[in-house]
Specification:
There is one protein chain. Helix 1 crosses helix 4. It contains five helices and five strands; from the N terminus they run E-H-E-H-E-H-E-H-H-E. A five-stranded parallel β-sheet has the order 2-1-3-4-5. It has one domain. With about 110 residues, the chain is α/β, with parallel strands linked by helices. The two termini are about 20 Å apart. Helix content is about 40%, strand content about 15%. Helix 3 links the parallel strand 3 and strand 4.
Length: about 110
């Protein structure tokens, strides 16, 4: 199954635009009425919809470390790369991995 993404609130909206313009199914908190929701709700939503969470928030790494179930997390420190590079990394992830391969896994961008 093809990876679908759910972007955390801290991820630049241009990344959603870039993914969608390439036909990649992507949600944002505003799309699914999760603006301002806690990380656990984002993770639960993404799991229920089989979406990989894209985030800059290290709290998602903590949730992974304590065993919270998830459909995958793509993490990148906010100041590490420019938006265009993050977009390219997500496109590569989408091209190379399946949603089944991302289950319960963290991919560091």
């Amino acid at each position: 199954m093809v990876i679908r993404f759910h972007l955390d609130e801290h991820v630049h909206p241009g990344i959603a635009v870039g993914l969608r313009s390439r036909g990649i199914d992507t949600t944002t908190p505003a799309d699914v009425d999760l603006a301002g929701a806690d990380d656990e709700k984002h993770l639960a939503y993404a799991l229920s919809e089989q979406r990989v969470v894209v985030t800059h928030d290290s709290d998602f790494l903590r949730l992974h470390a304590v065993g919270s179930a998830h459909a995958g997390i793509a993490y990148c420190h906010q100041d590490k790369y420019p938006i265009g590079f993050i977009l390219q990394m997500l496109l590569l992830l989408h091209a190379c991995e399946s949603s089944e391969e991302m289950q319960g896994r963290v991919e560091y961008l």
